[in-house]
Amino acid sequence: MMTRLTVAERQSAMFISGLVAVAGFAMAVAGHGDPMGAHGWITLLFAATLFFLAGEALYHDEPTEDRSAEYYDDPTKAGILISLAWAVIGMGMGVWVAAQLAWPDLRFDAAWSSFGRLRPVHTSGVIFGFGGNALIATSFHVMQRTSRARLAGHVSPWFVLLGFNLFCIIAASGYLMGVTQSKEYAEPEWYADLWLVVVWVVYFVLYVRTLARRNEPHIYVANWYYMAFILVVAILHIVNNLAVPASFDAAKSYSAFAGVQDAMTQWWYGHNAVAFFLTAGFLGMLYYYLPKRAERPIYSYRLSILSFWGIVFFYIWAGSHHLHYTALPQWAQTLGMTFSVMLLVPSWASAGNALMTLNGAWDKVRTDATLRFMMMAAVFYGLSTFEGSFMAVRAVNSLSHYTDWTVGHVHAGAMGWVALITFGSIYTVVPLLWRRETMYSWKLVEWHFWLALAGTVIYIFAMWNSGITQGLMWRTYTESGTLAYSFLETMLAMYPYYVARVIGGSLFLVGAILAAFNVVMTIRNVGYRAPQIDYPTASEAGEPAIPAAE
Amino acid sequence: MELTYEGTSAFAKSFGLIYLMVLSLGITVYAFWPSLGKRFDRAAKSVLDDEEGPCR
User: Fold this and answer.
1) Which chain B residues are Cβ-neighbours of A310 within 8 angstroms?
2) Of these four, A174, A312, A347, B41, which has the most CB atoms within 10 Å of its CB?
C-alpha cells in the first residue's frame, strides 16, 4: 500500500510518524512512573512501526498509476478491516462485562478487569473503534463517489485513520490502567483529547477539500450528514474536554466546569455524541448505501433535506433530558424534554424515507440479507427514536432513569440501528471496494442477520423487563412510608434478565465474528470482477453524471 | 454585563425564537423550491450509477 504513495508522500509520512514517535518518547520520559509514561511507549511503538513501514518503501519506484483516473480506496479498505477487528474486541468486552454483572466472579480478582474499567473499553471499543472506523472508512468512500473526485490528499486520509486508531488504543489501554476523566464517552485524559483535536481538524479539512474538487453541481445529502458529524463532534469534543492538567507529566486533569454546569456540559456532549456520532454519521451511510443496494433513488430527496436540518437543530437542545430531577434548573430540563419530543418528527421522517425507498423492492429485501440489514436498521432507528422521545418526558423518566431500561434503549439504538446499518453497509461496500463478484458466503450473511436480530431482541426485552421491574421496586413504599425493597432484593430480581442479556449479546458477537470471517474470505477467495466503470470524471467535463438511462 | 436568568430567557424567547422560525422557514422554502426539483432528482439518482454504470 505504501508504494502507491509518491516518494515525496512517503517522506512526509516518515516525517509525521517520526514527529509522533519523538512526542511519544518525550511522554514516556516525562510520565515515567505514571500511566502517561506507558502511553508514551505505546505511542512510540505505534509511530515507529509506521515510520519503518514508510521507510521500507522509500526507495521503491514512483507509482505509475494515473491518479486522475481512479479513486483512492486504500484507506477505506484498511478502515473497514480495522472496524471489524474493533467490533469483535468491543462486543467481546461487552459480553464479558454483561457476564460479570450476572456472575461477579468473572472479574478474576484483578484490578484491570473490574467492571468499572472494562465497561468503558466496551463502550469506546464499539462506539469509537467499530463505529468510528466504519464512519471514517465509509465517508472516504462516499465523499469520493458522490463528488466523482479523488480524495484530496494521500497522506492525510492515513493520518486521520491511523491517528484516530492511536487515540482509540490510548483510550482503551488507559481505562485498563485506571485512567479516566469520569465523563461518559469522554473518558480519555487531556493528552489523548488534544491529539484527537488534531486528527479531527485534519479530517474536516480533508472532507472539505475533497468536496471542493467535486464534479457534481449538488452536494449529495449523505455528505451533509457526514459533515455535520465531523463538525459537531469537533465542537462537542473541544468544549466538553476543556480541562486543566494537574501537571504535564501525569494523566490527571481537572474539568474547566464544576457542579451542575459540568453535568450540563457533559450531557450536552453525551447526548450529541449519540446525535452526531451515532445518528448523523450513520444516516449518511443510510442515505448512500440503502439506495445503492436497493437500486432505487431515495423516496423523497426533499424530505431528506428537511429531516437533516430538523435533526441538526433539535438534537443540540435535547441533552438536558439526562438531568431530570437534578440540580439543573427546571426550565432547562423542560427545554430538553420539549426538544426531545419534537425530535420524533425529523427522526421518523428519516426512518420513513428509508422504508418508503424500499417500497416496491420488498422482493429484494426478502432475498438479500444485506438490504434486510439496512431495512431492519431503519426500523430500529424508528423504534429507538420513539422510545427516546418517550423516555425524555419527565414523568416517564422518573421511572426509567438509572434503571436498565436506559441500557436497553441505548442498545436498541446501538445494536439495532448503528451496528445493523454498519454491517449492511460493509456487506455492500466490500465487494465493490475489492472488486469481488460477491461476498464469500451469502449464507453467512443470512446467519449473521438472524443472529444479530435475535441477539438484539433478546437483549432489549431483557432490559425492558429488568429496568421496569427495577424502577417499580425502587418506588414501592410500605404502609408506614418506608421503601418496600432493599437494593439487594432488586439485584436478585434482575439476575435472570442479566443472564438473558449475556445470551443476547453473545448471539450478536457471534454474528460479528462471522462478518469478519466472511469479509476476510471474500478478499482472499472470491474471484476478481472488473467494474464497468468506477473512476472520477475529469474536471473539464462540463455536465457530468447523466445516467445512461436518460 | 451580569448574566441573569431573566436576561437570558428574554434573549432566548425573542432572538432564539425568531432565529429558529426563520431558519425552519428558509429550509422548508429551499427544500420545496419548485425549480430545484430537477437538481434534487438528479442528485438522488446520481448515487445509483457511480460504481457500476457509466458515470457520464
Assistant:
1) 24
2) A174
d(CA A328, CA A330) in angstroms, rounded, equals 6
Do A288 and B47 lie within an 8 Å CB cutoff? yes
Interaxial angle between packed helices A487-525 and A420-433, expressed in degrees from 0 to 180 and rounded to the nearest 10 = 10
What does residue A477 show for φ and ψ, rounded to 5 degrees? -110, 155
Determine the distance in angstroms separating the CA of B25 from the nearest CA of chain A, rounded to an integer: 10
Please give the model's pTM, rounded to 2 decimal places.
0.94
CATH 1.20.210.10 applies to domain A72-249+257-525: yes
| Chain B neighbors of A534, CB-CB under 8 A | 50-52
Provide residues of B within 8 Å CB-CB of chain A.
Answer: 5, 9, 20, 23-24, 27-28, 30-32, 37, 39-56
Where along chain A do its domains lie?
1-58, 72-249+257-525
Q: What is the mean pLDDT of each run of 10 residues along chain A (550 residues)?
A: 90 97 97 96 98 92 84 95 98 98 95 96 98 98 91 95 98 97 96 98 97 90 97 97 96 95 96 95 97 94 95 92 95 94 96 96 95 98 97 96 96 97 97 92 97 98 97 96 94 97 98 98 88 59 43
Which residue is listed with cell 461496500? A429
Calculate the CA dihedral of residues A434, A439, A441, A443 and round it to 10 degrees: 150
Please report the sign of the dihedral spanned by the C-alpha atoms of residue A9, residue A27, residue A117, residue A112: positive
Do B31 and A306 lie within an 8 Å CB cutoff? Answer: yes
Cβ–Cβ below 8 Å for B47 and A292: yes
- Do the interacting molecules here have an ipTM over 0.95? no
Residue A334 contacts residue A392 (beta carbons within 8 Å): no
* Out of A221, A295, A305, closest to residue B48 by CB: A295
A536, A289, A287, A135: CA torsion to nearest 10: -80
* Residue A513 to residue A506: CA distance in whole angstroms: 10
**Roughly what angle, to the nearest 10 degrees, separates helices A369-391 and A344-358?**
160
DSSP state of A152: S
Query: Is A545's CB within 8 Å of B9's CB?
Result: no
CA A430-A434-A439 angle, 5° bins: 45
Cβ of A309 and B24 within 8 Å? yes
